[in-house]
Amino acid sequence: xxxxxxxxxxxxxxxxxxxxxxxxxxxxxxxxxxxxxxxxxxxxxxxxxxxxxxxxxxxxxxxxxxxxxxxxxxxxxxxxxxxxxxxxxxxxxxxxxxxxxxxxxxxxxxxxxxxxxxxxxxxxxxxxxxxxxxxxxxxxxxxxxxxxxxxxxxxxxxxxxxxxxxxxxxxxxxxxxxxxxxxxxxxxxxxxxxxxxxxxxxxxxxxxxxxxxxxxxxxxxxxxxxxxxxxxxxxxxxxxxxxxxxxxxxxxxxxxxxxxxxxxxxxxxxxxxxxxxxxxxxxxxxxxxxxxxxxxxxxxxxxxxxxxxxxxxxxxxxxxxxxxxxxxxxxxxxxxxxxxxxxxxxxxxxxxxxxxxxxxxxxxxxxxxxxxxxx
Length: 375
What we know:
Blueprint: H1 14-23, H2 31-44, E1 48-52, H3 55-65, E2 73-77, H4 82-89, E3 94-98, E4 120-123, H5 135-145, E5 148-152, E6 160-161, E7 164-165, E8 172-176, E9 189-193, H6 199-206, H7 212-216, H8 236-247, H9 249-266, H10 268-272, E10 285-286, E11 292-295, H11 299-311, H12 327-332, E12 333-335, H13 342-346, E13 349-352, H14 360-374
Parallel strand pairs: 2-3, 2-4, 3-12, 4-5, 5-8
Antiparallel strand pairs: 1-9, 6-7, 6-10, 8-9, 11-13
Helix pairs in contact: 1-8, 2-8, 3-4, 3-6
């Protein structure tokens, strides 16, 4: 079976893991946790990067920093992972879902303004497949309505929008380093703090509501409980594994992009014949080849194609069930305007295997099998 995903493995990550054991410092915010944070800050030109156990944790920290409270509203697409919504529901917010664009599968920036009310506290653009939302428009809406912009850039590490790294454009950003992502610590995430006013409180929230970070830097003579928070520190082992991959990010990115480009070029003929629709990348966006998807005619065709690929030893999958149609989505959220594309387009989308180190033979088998299905 050709798997849908394989966690990225360079082969020499073990040297840093062994170093963690030799150092005897295995809990978070030690050598490799700090190295990962500094690497992101330096390479992505951001104010502060705080490593977390997951992107979910980074989003939950964002909700606290945005001071989300009972009765507030948070705008986001319905076509996203549950963590995007859960982080704000946990603080008491009502989720306001906005329709997506059919070309990028991102939130339709032209529909956000009409979803804003006096209760709106934050807008959460989700950069689907590592392709940026139209951030200039979204930032403008946020500024004119005095609301937070929190980027869910779980899939967008190393992707850019007009030269700016995703996650560094809004007030806050959240990354994922889960094993399904381009660069992985097995589990893992990062909170990107772009608003200087939020940096100190972000450190406090991450340290269980204490000012321990200030104490360790010698800024206070003892640390104590000063705010709400939780244990948002990752293990050193995850960050040690991840740091080696960050050092080699260009190699990983180049390899994945080669696979992505091969798929795109080979499936162009199917698109010309209107069997499939391929991903759209706006000219001002550079994507990280996080996933390769195609959209087919309808749900029935997608189901048949997934089964056909499985019968031929290839694991292909669909993606999110739109949150507004889920039981919790109906309870904790509402859809603003018309669901013109979210459900319809999500039922067409199918993701093909793509991962670091995927062999040329496996790529060709996937391509040949897809063509065989449509013949």
